[in-house]
Amino acid sequence: MQKIIPPLTLYVKVVFVFIVHLLLIGCTTAEDELQHKGGVAISFDDHFIDEWYQLRPLFKQHGAKVTFFITCADTLTEAEKRLLHELQEDGHEIGFHGTVHGNATQLLSSASVDGYISTELEPGMKYMQQAGFHPTSYAHPGGNHNALADSVLLAQGFTILRDVAKNERSLYGVQLYHLPPKYMPHIYYTFDHDSTVDALTIDTDVHISQEEIREGLIKARDTGTVLMLFGHKPLYQEPRPGEYGFRVSFLNSILAQADSLDLQFYTMSELPALSDQRPKRSSL
After folding, report:
1. Residue 39 CA to chain centroid, in angstroms?
2. Superfamily classification of domain 40-275
3. 112 burial class (0-12, 13-18, 19+ CB within 10 angstroms)?
């Protein structure tokens, strides 16, 4: 004889199953969100190898790994190659920043795609490979590029191309705008398979407070994204005329805050590689 379930008991069971289903969905979502921790990807451009190497104890103190984008690889000395290999062994990435630090759009216009490759890409990459480095990340010199340049670089095997972003602009000494990093969604990597990205400069020609950086890092932590920052030469005092770079004290603050917030430090090439391990995140 078939057992008849009282309506109230059936209702309780349905509610129970529904609650368990919601809890399981919630657990799956939380686990998925934690698959890649929010973090920060810091990179440095040009050819300040001795100065970057002096930051090695600072990186080790905070468990940080960063990316160094090298230009003018034909001038690398044996000592500089050794320093870069030591940095690479520490877990840092060695990227490429062009052979002559040229203007990509001008080169493409005047010398065509073949001329761009033979002038800006192939010679420097040859020197990098001879030195034992095989870059898969590229930083646009001067932030200058277009869709054609990007397509050429990706066809050459680079997996991520980094552009330049600034949080403020001035015209004839008059500030047009100033944006805290947390209001700049394009400087956050969302693990969406994007191969063209923007990083915010921390050089002294823009003004970013420690509190603004902290807010940006907290946003990265809370959204499971990666705040991308970059600079040039480490400076221990006010820059001289024509000198460009970031204050080491400011970098130290960034590293310390990221460390205290338990953020992950990412190299640039890790970002697209890790994107293959998860579906696209929701927008910021």
Report:
1. 9
2. Glycoside hydrolase/deacetylase (3.20.20.370)
3. exposed
Domain parsing of the chain, residue ranges: 40-275
* Beta strand 174-178 pairing with 168-171: antiparallel
pTM: 0.85
pLDDT for 152-189, tens place per residue? 999 999 999 999 999 887 777 777 789 999 999 999 99
Return the SS3 of 243.
coil
At 78, list the tokens: 């044996």
The set of long-range contacts for 82-86, using a CB threshold of 8 Å and a minimum separation of 24, is: 83/49, 83/50, 83/53, 84/49, 84/131, 84/133, 85/132, 86/53, 86/56
In DSSP terms, 227 is beta-bridged to 40, 188
- The single-letter code of the amino acid at 62 is H
Cβ neighbours, 10 Å, residue 212: 17
Distance from first CA to last CA of the chain, Å, rounded? 58
